[in-house]
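Worked problem 6 (solution included).
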Amino acid sequence: MIRHKILRNILIVTASVTALLIALSFSQGFCDWYTDHIYPYPASILGRLTALLPFALGEILMYLSILLIPATVIILLLLFFLRRRPKYRRFAAIYGKTLLTAAVCMGFLYTANWLVPFRGSVLGQQVQAEQTYSIDALAALREYAVTELNRAAEDVPRDADGVVIMPDQETIDSAVVRAMQQLSAEYPRLAGYYPPMKDALCSDVLDWMNIGGFTYPFTMELTGNRYVSRLYYPVLYAHESSHHKGYYKEHEANFLSILGCSRSEEPVLRYSAYYEMYYYLDDAYRTSLLAEYEREDAAAIYKAAAMPAGIVRTDWQRSQAEAEARYAADSHPLKRFSQTAEQAAETGWSTQAKVLKEYNYGGVVGLLLQYYKGIAAR
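Solution. The predicted structure is:
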């Protein structure tokens, strides 16, 4: 009886704290203060603990939570027929209490480790990204990205056949962590510990859904799709690491991953960063041209713009082919669900874009234009 009272009181306190945090999360000032001063402690402690596990605990818990839905329905249906059996009623009661405890704990962790940081100001600095921008400004920054991308292509080590020599995993991971930590002078949250990024257990499902990685707020683990391109991996790890540091808006994480990796002493990280930067700016540039000019005129203007060197296209085609070969070499027992996953992803990406709006991935263009304003003139 005493144990039940203790558990009940703990649940009441946890639920009350969760409700209070949700209420306070409507204040950006509180969210920024919380993310700067409170959030780093649970993020670091949980990240260090779960990093000791060779598998992604958060991913397993997510799958278990999905399985609990049909299990709960079955238990409730059986309770209707077996309600007169004391043993089953006791089992159902224990199951219900366990489920309630888990739900309250998960609600608290999601609120404390995701909702409050997410509702803070952009980059924790009340930054207002450029929402409208001129084609000239976009063209200038795109040209800068192309120039740096081509320079990075010259800097990366290559073998006798001209193929990029990729550093080992430990070297890349260490370089990404150093690159992000070096940004802490401008973005203080980026200081401190970084957990490793684990391979997602169901990387094939992520691949079908076009998902590169995922951060689990309730375990503070980073997971990555093991089938992504090796050249893309550095900015992916930096992106998920930015989430771990409390930058949960997608355009924030994109911006910080590009900025951090572009300043790295490791050439492959710079190559990864400037390609990512070019990718978003180029897409925004083409979209803006089509919105401003007739299709033929837009095509002519775009054709005259600076372009990545041929070796850049070759490098990324090779890297993608290598990633596809890794995928083909593995068995995929869930392959029959691939079409369902792709359809779900299409709906999910569209919905996310509408909900997040300027906070979505493409919003990185506004942050880049603001940060690099005047870069072409220097």
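Discussion: The CA atoms of residues 109 and 218 lie 5 Å apart.
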